[in-house]
Amino acid sequence: MTLERMGPEAIEGRSMEIIEKELGDMGPLPPADCLGVIKRVIHATADFDYRDSLFFSPGAVAAGVEAMKAGAWLVTDTNMAKAGVNKAALEKLGGRVLCFMAEEEIAQAAKERGTTRAAVSMEAAADLDTAGAPLVLAVGNAPTALIRAWELFQEGRLSPALVIAAPVGFVHVVESKELWRNAPCPRIIAQGRKGGSTVAAAILNALLYQAAGRNI
Q1: Beta-carbon count within 10 A of 88 CB
Q2: Spatial separation of the C-alpha atoms in residues 206 and 210, rounded to whole Å
Q3: Could you report the average pLDDT of every consecutive run of 10 residues in the chain (216 residues)?
Q4: Measured distance CA(160)–CA(12) in Å, rounded
Q5: Which end of the chain, N or C, is surrounded by fewer C-beta atoms within 10 Å?
Q6: Contact status, residue 135 vs residue 128, Cβ threshold 8 Å
Q7: 159 Cβ contact list (under 8 Å, min separation 6)
Q8: Is domain 8-212 classified as CATH 3.60.10.10?
Q9: What is the DSSP string of 151-165?
Q10: Active site residues
């Protein structure tokens, strides 16, 4: 079998064509404002379940894009998600991406308090001085991060421009996402057990690409 040689951009473009066609074969396409994010997540996971399982609060995508245009600071709960963010698009928009999980003081505080580094990392996010830049939280692994972020939000210590709630797993994963279901802030939620750092990064990139004017 001879396979056509294609460059990375051509492969990505063809992949998106396939994804959109298969989405159309499944029924009406998702709303236009959400379609780019859904396609990017499916592209990263090859999982068409995200067509229906991704939840978008009204205006969430627009809020995310505006935050990116304003040079948002992105805080993730894994270095894998941090690594997956497109740095060229982020730099073009003047944003930053941060993850506190590997910092020694975070690990020490978590050990002393008998909690998780992910939970303490959300406290570090709440203490950030972003100099007026919007803060976007992207949780792709730890439900404890999402739970602690919710507590900080309730206390008025954390005011994210957007929350991406996409932890993966079995213990408190669904429950942590449901905390944010009716929150009075923009949010994108990977409902159910599925999610992960790849999903969190894919959502961030979809928003970055829209903000940077890249055809996704």
Answers
A1: 10
A2: 6
A3: 73 92 94 95 97 97 98 97 96 97 96 97 97 97 97 97 98 97 97 97 97 78
A4: 31
A5: N
A6: yes
A7: 135, 153, 185
A8: no
A9: HHHHTTS---SEEEE
A10: 43
Residue 52 DSSP SS3: helix
Phi/psi for 63 (5° steps) reads -65, -40
Asked whether the beta carbons of 75 and 98 are under 8 A apart, the reply is yes
- Break the chain into its structural domains and give their ranges: 8-212
- The verdict on pTM exceeding 0.70 is yes
> Is residue 64 helix, strand or coil?
helix
Q: In 3D, which of 140, 192, 147 has the Cα closest to residue 165? A: 140
- Structure token digits, residue 167: 């932890």
* Residues 165 and 176 sit within 8 Å (Cβ to Cβ): yes
